């Protein structure tokens, strides 16, 4: 059986839809669907993320059972810094002493794992990361 990753669906407060639309436009993902209570965005590899109306008032706890975070990879280390600036303009603070290099996640001395982590208005934990040659 040959498979590949398809999509994730996140339940959000629909008042925050513009945050996700703008963030993924900045990250150069395409809008696949933008309608009543649902936003779908897709990357160049066919992966899609969907943000739809929450049906319960439970709060997300990324340190509890379930998904901790999702990551979006960039092509250059400078892209992570651009994301940090983009988030700062919107009042979104980096978490966990990021942005930073994580040598514990690299494959060799010539490579780097450079990340920023942040929380969306719906408490979804997101990582934007560059992995590749040190610049």
Automatic annotation (TrEMBL):
Q: Which residues form the VOC domain?
A: 2-131
Instruction: Fetch the Gene3D superfamilies from UniProt.
Output: 2,3-Dihydroxybiphenyl 1,2-Dioxygenase, domain 1
Top-rank taxon, per record: Bacteria
A Pfam family reported for this protein in Swiss-Prot or TrEMBL: Glyoxalase
The family database entries (PROSITE patterns) matched by this protein are listed as: VOC (PS51819)
Q: Which SUPFAM superfamilies match?
A: Glyoxalase/Bleomycin resistance protein/Dihydroxybiphenyl dioxygenase (SSF54593)
Q: Which InterPro entries does the record associate with it?
A: Glyas_Bleomycin-R_OHBP_Dase, Glyas_Fos-R_dOase_dom, VOC_core
What name appears for this protein in its UniProt entry? Answer: VOC domain-containing protein
Q: Which organism is it from?
A: Kouleothrix aurantiaca
């Amino acid at each position: 059986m040959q498979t590949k990753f398809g999509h994730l669906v996140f339940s959000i407060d629909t008042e925050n839809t513009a945050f996700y639309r703008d963030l993924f436009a900045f990250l150069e993902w395409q809008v696949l669907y933008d309608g009543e209570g649902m936003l779908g965005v897709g990357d160049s590899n066919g992966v899609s993320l969907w943000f739809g109306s929450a049906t319960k008032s439970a709060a997300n706890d990324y340190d509890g059972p379930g998904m901790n975070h999702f990551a979006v990879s960039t092509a250059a280390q400078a892209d992570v810094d651009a994301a940090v600036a983009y988030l700062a303009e919107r009042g979104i603070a980096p978490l966990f002493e990021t942005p930073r290099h994580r040598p514990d996640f690299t494959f060799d001395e010539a490579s780097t794992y450079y990340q920023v982590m942040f929380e969306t208005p719906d408490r979804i934990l997101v990582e934007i990361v560059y992995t590749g040659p040190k610049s």
